[in-house]
Known about the structure:
CATH superfamily of the largest domain: FAD/NAD(P)-binding domain
Amino acid sequence: MSRPRCVIIGAGFGGLGAAHALRQQGIDDITVLERADRVGGVWRDNTYPGAACDVPSPLYSWSWALNPSWTRRYSGQAEILAYLERAAGKAGLLDTVQTRQEVCEATYDDRTATWQVRTTDGTTYDADVLISAVGQLSEPVVPDLPGRESFAGAAFHSARWRHDVPLDGARVAVVGTGASAVQFVPEIVDRVGSLTVFQRSAPYVVPRPDTEYRPFHHRLFDRHPAVMRGERGATFHLSELLNRALGGGSAIAAPFMATLRQVWRAHLRRQVTDPALREKLQPDHPMGCKRILFSNDWYPALARDHVDVVTEAVVGVEPTGVVGADGTHHEADVLIWGTGFSATDFLSTIRVTGRAGLELHDVWRGGATAYLGIGVPGFPNLFCVYGPNTNLGGSSIIGMMEAQAGWIAQVVRRLADTDRRAFEVRTAAFEAYDREMQGRLRESVWARCDSWYRDGDRITTNWPGRVGEYQQRLTTVDWSHLVAT
């Protein structure tokens, strides 16, 4: 095989980063299938007011496309999307993308050792290598509550924001207090007539050390790239402290988390003076069970006179409002779901069939798992970017995805250089890796949590160590862990 045909599903940071890694290995036959009409992934979809990254931009960027022109340390959605498009365009990656191609099925042909990929409009693509880069945060979740469809006003998920819906003076109900709500609630609070925030479990919110980058910063970064790389490196090493603490088994874990908890407590006490509200905003879980959030205006927004924080569970929706578990009807003109994403349902919208008719969804029925978060036995030449157990509690996911892309590109390069048709993960390596992950995760903060990190008894989303450890493990391929055919 001299020129493997590669199909990548998804044109966000993961998919485009994989295309770049393949190009770096001299692989040119690349097609990226994107279901939307534009690249960008979550940064295209999430246009809600205040949408921004909670990782500093010098780190939340490709290592091969550092940007000296960020306007802020924590950049907003539009700027991140513009950066992604600009960097991908400069690298010649946009020419590989086919938009409005939503993949619904992928089937492996044992006889030809190829994948047939089908989209919802009936188009088919043949590939020697198939890479899934659909991410963990691409499918919004809206609870299937009684009466949900009966609501008379506008209702939408934060990831599908309705900019045509007027909020000025409206009675707005927000269900959920996760990372998205912490950003959009402060942005809309002074526009609405009243705001009811339904909180199932309070998040830990700590100060966001944001700053505006001035022209002299841009000149400094542009003329002295080492300074920019130094800031990126410093941010990386600081975030690795959090990753070590969350993963457990480290001497720094307890004191680091205790210090961070004191920072949160001081932040809450300083910004919320009402004891009753402060009590509502006390998390009921260990720090780290849910993503630690960074905001300077979340608590002040909830302290406004026209805002009500409701801790009763939402049990139903009626035409004029939302019903709490205590039977109270909360009137609303607009209902916004800030209820997150289906993070544990990997590849849920695509039917993937491997060797001998093996269904990936059947393999993952008890919880998704993959060798290095990338490969599964029975599915030759199928690789995942941002797959099971590769998410982070801290730091930039781009560092994880770049490591995955580099590893995958090495395998594809070997296919191009040899007469091998396919590589597949050995069952023994797959099972040993899964035992290691679940064993280490039992020592982590997430083992004490009942949250979206889990699928039943398994923790399927998060990586238990440092990003640096993961990158080191994926620097070179351990060929003894793969079967060549």
